[in-house]
Amino acid sequence: MSVEATAPGKMILFGEHSVVYRGPAIVLAIDRRASVIASKRDDKRVYVDAEDLGFSGYFEENIYYPITGKAWRGRNLSALNVASKKVMEHLNVDGGVNLKVRSMIPIAVGLGSSAAVCVATTAAVGELYEGKLTKEEIAELSFEGEKIIHGTPSGVDNNVSTYGGIMKYERNQPFNRFKIENQLPFVIGNTRRKRSTKNLVDEVRLLHERNSDLVDNIIDTIGLISTQGLESLFKNDHYMIGELMNINHGLLSALGVSTPELDQLVHSARREGAYGAKLTGAGGGGCMIAISSEENLSSIERGIRRYRGQSIRVNNTNEGVITRRINNGDN
Ligand code: PMV
Questions:
Q1: N or C: less crowded end of the chain, CB within 10 Å?
Q2: pTM: predicted TM-score of the whole model, two decimal places
Q3: How remote is the CA of residue 42 from the centroid of ligand 1, in Å?
Q4: Cβ distance 275 to 243 under 8 Å?
């Protein structure tokens, strides 16, 4: 018997960087998912098959032994090792697992791929050992894995991936979760340039130190955009959501986190009829997002590809992590 769990990626609609200071930020689960199929092992190894991503290997006593791909990949995979071990510890199981990882979420571009894989791993291992984990437990245990990769992440990625829907988060405040029934048509444009969130947060901090009054005003205005943006989501006002995204992008550029590639994709999307477009996540590469009427989605996508970006059509989703048992031994 094996168990498959799938969990969604995310995009930040409003409020990145400002949320590092006071926020809030508005984050949406997207209908691009990571899948993990877990099965039991006779030994205590955690075996990870991520062949789609070009590597596989196993952990024994927390040491990584590559089978295909480079040894340093173990650093990324250690989150899955930790998440699996935490779940087994939580359930008083002294065992091992095989994890087959597949993901439709591009890596290291701000779409929450590592959190989605961690959440799916946690849920799959929990169900495999009949742990009946609650969503709260899944979010908590997967966070232990996330910390291995990201140090001190905010926790928003694994939360939104666990529960789905919309998350409003603010420093030192509990997460606020919402669901909306309507689907919003978005296009993601991936510049394919990987970046480090930590470096970009550091750069904004230095800018803040040099120009604290100016940057404080930008941070507050972005916070206001998030608040108004959430209202526009509830009203299903796509035009206003787009307008607020445009203003938000301008302010992120003012903070210095946009790039010529991101600006090119943002302006191309607007030219092709988007209601609005902005970078999403830390910036410095990674992705931009555009909201549009259904009829303009294709030309926005063509525009993104013309500038050598990867275009991905997504909707928001209320579906957080889900698990299913596979009884035919097919894993
Ligand atoms: O690109 P991501 O998903 O790592 O998002 C970073 C968002 C920031 O506000 C820049 C940092 C943070 O921790 O909130």
A1: N
A2: 0.94
A3: 40
A4: yes
